[in-house]
Amino acid sequence: MQPTATKSEIPALELKGVGKNYGSVAALAPTDLTVRHGELVTLLGPSGSGKSTILSIAAGIVAPDCGRVLFNGRDVTERPAHERDVGMVFQRYTLFPNMTVADNVAFPLRARSVAAAEIAERVRHFLDLVGLLAQRDRYPSQISGGQAQRVALARALVFGPALLLMDEPLGALDRRLRQALQEEIRRIHDETKVPTLYVTHDQEEAMNLSDRIVLVHDGRIAAAGAPRDLYLGPRTLWSAEFLGDVNRCDIAAIADRADGHCTVTTADGMRIRARIPEEAALASAPVLVIRPEDCRLSARGPPDRASFRGTIVGAAFLGALQRLQVRLDSGWTITATQAGRSIPYDSGTVVYCDWDDDAPLVVAGS
User: Fold this and answer.
1) What confidence tens digit (pLDDT) does each residue in 94-127 have?
2) 124 near 131, Cβ under 8 Å?
3) I need a labelling partner for 326 at 20 to 30 A (CA). Which of 7, 12, 62, 363 fits?
């Protein structure tokens, strides 16, 4: 007899084979996705990749052409949005302009006929949680954009939803405010533990916020995992490039495979020790990638490891970082980054480039 799954083992949200077509256009191929209790999952991908389609299907705004939607193990595929117990926060705040901050937050509770005393207590608690208790009597026109988004978040959480859905909620804000609100969203999530599905196209935002990132590309899930795992161990060239900068090089041959490593001969004749996952070894067009921050430059090559001679052909000072373009003697031009306070290199300077053996990675090119 199979043991019964506990509530914590049953996903808060589970999509089973959900797909959506718009005429002849496949917006989303049949897709499986879960959000566990207490988890913040980010859907990350370029515009038009299918992120918002997944979110809309979970919310009940869009009906899937195939597959099922489950909340806490119960099938809600046929339920309309207003019966799904979902809180939503959009890029546009959608606050009622004729209501005060407190009344905006109270609206979902009044719509559910919650007792007045409980409404007052919940509104006070959630305005305090988002740091806006002092602004409770102001109108949306009297608060900033960042404050309005925090009001929208409090309103989405105040009735205790089974799931919180956020669709690019920080997209209309400036960079500094986005960064501040990312920290606020993460703090509030850690306090409330409401399972959350969050859509963004901003890689830094996803890395900063997420327990788990789901990469969406061309209507399919391309990869999923913890931010650190996806960044340090991408399985495809697309994933590696979408989650950050990489130096890439075509591969002529792979030899000496053992214990997840190999020796790569690049198309321009370099021999490099690299990590190689099994799926990359089986790929028809494997590619070697190295992150710029893993490339070390020095005036003389280190005596204890292999290095590659090259010439600085471009440099940019970016404040915290310097970005350097190096044309190696083999012909491969790479980008290396180093601290902004490091000694600058002028164009034409001869340097030696090296990296740790675990920095290069073989990925599937297509």
Assistant:
1) 899 999 999 999 999 999 999 999 999 999 999 9
2) no
3) 363
Alpha-carbon distances of 34 from 102, 189, 200, 288, 311, rounded to whole Å: 34, 18, 17, 32, 48
Low-confidence winner among 25-29, 176-180, 293-297, 310-314 (lowest mean pLDDT): 176-180
Q: And the tokens for 284?
A: 């028809």
99, HSE (Cβ side, Cα atoms, 13 Å): 15
Percent of the chain topping pLDDT 90: 81
Contact 136, 102 (CB under 8 A): yes
Residue, of 357 and 37, whose pLDDT is higher: 37
| Residue boundaries of the structural domains of the chain | 7-232, 237-364
Cα dihedral across residues 354, 357, 363, 365: positive or negative: positive
Q: Cα(267)–Cα(288) distance, rounded to whole angstroms?
A: 10
CATH code, residues 7-232 = 3.40.50.300
Whether the predicted pLDDT of 281 surpasses 80: no
Residue 354's contacts (CB-CB under 8 Å, 6 or more residues apart) are: 295, 296, 298, 301, 302, 305, 306, 307, 308
For domain 237-364, give its CATH number from 2.40.50.100, 3.30.70.890, 1.10.357.10, 3.40.50.1820: 2.40.50.100
Rounded (5°) CA angle 171-175-179: 90
Q: Which residue has the tokens 């009297």?
A: 142
pTM: 0.90
pLDDT reported for residue 302: 81
Rounded to whole angstroms, the Cα distance separating 52 from 50 reads 6
Only one residue has tokens 């926060």, namely 89
Which residues of the chain form beta strands (DSSP E)? 13-22, 25-35, 40-44, 66-71, 74-75, 86-90, 163-167, 196-200, 212-217, 220-225, 247-258, 261-266, 271-275, 286-290, 296-298, 308-317, 321-328, 333-339, 350-354, 361-364
Question: From CA 196, how far away is CA 178, in angstroms rounded?
Answer: 18
Q: How far apart are CA 291 and CA 245, in angstroms?
A: 6
- Locus of tokens 């010439």: 311
pLDDT at position 300? 86
Pairing of strands 163-167, 196-200: parallel
